[in-house]
Write a structure and sequence with these properties.
This protein is of the alpha+beta class. The protein has helices spanning 40-50, 74-83, 131-145, 173-178, 185-198, 243-251, 262-271, 302-311, 314-322, 351-360, 378-390, 402-409, 429-436, 451-461, 466-483; strands spanning 2-3, 54-59, 88-90, 96-98, 101-107, 112-117, 151-158, 161-166, 206-212, 216-221, 234-239, 257-258, 285-291, 367-374, 393-400, 418-424, 487-491, 498-499, 503-504, 522-523. The radius of gyration is 24 Å and the shape is globular. This is ABC transporter substrate-binding protein.
Length: 524
């Protein structure tokens, strides 16, 4: 049994996707009657310097809505986090800690996950976050997306306790349940699905005020928020689709927070604006290369795949695509993340070793390999072509439309040679399963299934302790990235955030925004 303690404990992760921080759990409000009122000067200073004001942010595209099942891209995820909260949140190592929940209790023998809730948490419409409401949220998501594992039943056994029973054990259950945005079932019933999409009701520190289509979304503070804060009066999300226009607005003082592209980030660095994304990646996305091991050809020989990996100069690629900002990746996980194998020797840049392996495989005179990529990825694909050709490969560029590429990697069409690879990192067993498991669906159509990998993933899914899961993920990193060399991870594309100098305590990081603390934000 794994059991969380009251307040903040362990447990594991999801993200988004991404993506990709410094976590700061909300503290309980101190009742007014117990506060020390002897330092009136300090209290007034806090009110004067650190409270009030409107935080001005931007959106690169307008959200379609805010049902928990429909929140997908980064801007909508950030906005939703001001209004709705989750049962858990990530710590720095990417493990899920209770947040709205008091604790998570796993019982693999009984195939149950028990969620105990904190007392006294209410939605902004006055309804209570209780077991019946959490049961409704879980069943709604499972009905719409069936993404929470093999759930047999969900039972509210008392006002504070929900018991989820699985038909087969799900070692990722805490990650999946803990990562759900909680919605007010009362508001959903009153507003209907379409109405809730446009005016969600959560337990968060802010309320929807107005949505001016094509212009902005405005939030106002919830004065009855259950935790510490909020300290500011509201938030305004302006729709600014053009990256240069967002940069200009930020530098003109019209925005308080910005997530710039790499070129814009260099401008902000030079101007001395603070980047608040200084901590290691939690989860996030991976970019790199994936090999066609299914069809007859040179890439069926693991030595050729190893040679490709030795040819990739990760530092050169990262410098070219991000000015050196993106974190390097050499496993199916982020360094510092719980599923990263610290003891694994991976394939590093070594031209001589590359040529030696090609000679052993019978290609001492060089080899020609196709590189398949979506047209939108031409910049990175061209960089990878240059890196590989420096090592003696001849790369045939195979650019296809995004829809064709999607069909190739997800729909079963397959790809020629090497493909540009994008993936969520191995932040839980299901992350490995999506591509390498018994029933994969993502970047799997040109991979020859590897029985020992499939068996190990199934073992990890059935694991009953975090220690057993860690043993499985360490071995999976070795099998996928070294022994069978199915992929060549290169870097983690990261979203950086900059703020004006008078903004503090936002806690928004590189890729995963699960640790964003909107209730603590201050404008000085």
């Amino acid at each position: 049994m794994r059991k969380g303690k009251k307040g903040i404990t362990w447990l594991t992760v999801i993200a988004l996707a991404a993506s990709l921080m410094a976590g700061c759990g909300a503290k309980e409000k101190v009742p007014e009657e117990t506060q020390d009122k002897s330092s009136a000067g300090d209290e007034s200073t806090v009110k004067e310097e650190e409270t009030g004001g409107i935080l001005r942010m931007s959106m690169s595209m307008e959200p379609t809505g805010f049902l928990s099942t429909d929140i997908s891209f980064l801007d909508s995820y950030i906005l939703a986090s001001f209004v709705m909260e989750r049962l858990g949140r990530l710590d720095k190592a990417g493990q899920m800690e209770p947040f709205l929940a008091e604790e998570f209790i796993e019982n693999p023998e009984d195939m149950t996950l028990t969620v105990r809730l904190k007392d006294g948490i209410k939605y902004s419409d006055g309804s209570t976050l209780d077991a019946e409401n959490v049961k409704w949220n879980i069943e709604y998501v499972q009905e719409v997306k069936a993404s929470l594992g093999a759930i047999e039943s969900v039972e509210a056994v008392d006002p504070k306790t929900v018991v989820i029973t699985y038909s087969e054990w799900n070692s990722s259950g805490v990650n999946q349940i803990g990562g759900l945005f909680m919605m007010s079932s009362q508001a959903f019933e009153e507003l209907g699905e379409d109405g809730f999409q446009k005016k969600p009701v959560g337990t968060g520190p802010f309320l929807f005020d107005s949505w001016d289509a094509g212009e902005k979304i405005s939030l106002v503070r919830q004065d009855n928020y259950w935790g510490e804060g909020p300290y500011i009066d509201g938030v305004e999300f302006k729709l600014i689709e053009d990256a240069q226009a967002r940069l200009s607005a930020f530098m003109a003082g019209e925005l308080d927070v910005i997530s710039p592209g790499i070129n814009e980030a260099e401008t902000l660095d030079a101007a001395g604006y603070p980047c608040v994304s200084e901590n290691p990646v939690v989860g996030g996305m991976l970019r790199g290369l994936i090999f066609n091991t299914l069809d007859e050809g040179p890439l069926q020989d693991v030595k050729v795949r190893e040679a490709v990996c030795h040819a990739v100069n990760r530092e050169e690629v990262i410098q070219a695509v991000s000015g050196g900002k993106y974190p390097m990746a050499d496993q199916f996980s982020a360094k510092g993340f719980w599923s990263y194998n610290d003891n694994l020797e991976t394939y590093q840049y070594d031209i001589e070793k590359c040529k030696e392996l090609l000679a052993e495989a019978g290609y001492e005179d060089g080899i020609t390999l196709p590189l398949t990529y979506p047209a939108s990825d031409v910049e990175l694909a061209t960089i990878m072509q240059g890196v590989l050709e420096k090592a003696g490969f001849t790369i045939e560029m195979n650019s296809v439309e995004q829809s064709v590429f999607d069909q190739a990697v997800v729909g079963g069409g397959g790809w020629d040679g090497i493909a540009m690879w994008t993936s969520g990192s191995g932040q839980e067993i299901n992350g490995f399963n999506d591509t390498f498991g018994e029933h994969p669906f993502f970047f799997c159509s040109s991979l020859e299934p590897v029985p020992e990998i499939v068996e190990l993933i199934n073992e990890g899914k059935a694991a009953t302790s975090q220690e057993d899961i860690k043993v499985c993920t360490d071995k999976l990193q070795e099998l996928i990235c070294v022994k069978h060399c199915l992929v060549c991870p290169v870097f983690m594309p990261s979203t950086f955030f900059y703020t004006q100098k008078n903004i503090s305590d936002m806690n928004i990081g590189i890729e995963s925004v699960n640790q964003l603390t909107p209730q603590l934000i201050k404008i000085k």
